[in-house]
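# step 3/5: fold
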Amino acid sequence: MNLSLITSHNRERLPLLVLAVISLFWSYFYLADSALNDFGQDRPEWLLLVDVFITVPLVCFVYIRDTKQAALKVLVYCSLLVLLGSFIIPETEKRIWPWFESLRYALVAGFVLLELLSIATVVWAIKAAFIREQDLDQAIKDSICRYFSAVPEAVGRLLMVETRVWSYLLFAHKVKPQHFEGEWHFYSDLKDGTQSNQLGFIMIMLFELPIVHLLLHYMVSPWAATVVSVLTLIGMVFFIAEYRALGKRPVSLKRDKLIVRYSVWNPQYIAYEDIAEINLNKEYIKRGKGIKRYNLTGAPNVELVLNSGDKVYLGVNNPSSLVDALNHLR
């Protein structure tokens, strides 16, 4: 076994693995009658407390180099174990555990406050980017990387999408073509009526929302009606942001690379040297491994075949112009 691989590549994943093992072991210990707990007669809470306040913090600070990230994971993992203990530890064995359970409300309030402060900071950074006429995508990326550096990469990418959704929902009118990185820009809003179709879908959602709410309120329950309506409104936030972003975010060409921006999703950067073929396309493309589609309505009209064998399909207003420009820059 390659020990260097464990210490360099996977060491920061070990605390999560330890958390999973601890959770499974103590769940079995407290819930099942076995020889480990004298067949249900000996299940003290202090055994789990040792792992919560000694094992988990020790593992996190040993295997995670970034002290800030380690402290954050200690807080999250210990909170999860306290929550787990409130379900698996028998009530007759709880002595000090109820006190830890009461702290979860203060923890939730702290997290909410932290999130609100972080959101306010990100909004301020984005507003400053508008004033400087900076690329909005780059401003969002810089803000997330600066203020959420401790989160995993996948979570960071998701936060970028979420931030972009709210940015275009609230500030789309301030986004100008000159704000985007690139010398030539190609848009997707008019292709097969993409943006018009989005607007129609939003209008249908707005029309049916009160009707569905009333039907669920009287036929199912007020709680069900409220939940469905809230989820619909959250989804509508995304669709409105997507509608506004379609006419603002272009596919851009630089001297050395293609920048694929579409809807509110994170941009993809493709170096010209990584492109093997550029073709016009008229056929419907199914989802598949190694296929990325940046198209909402109809069939994508530009096909990019990469040297890796992967394919990228685009739906733009002027496909011939994009293909000619790409062939010229290559």
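# step 4/5: annotate
The first strand starts at residue 184 and ends at 186.
# step 5/5: archive (pending)
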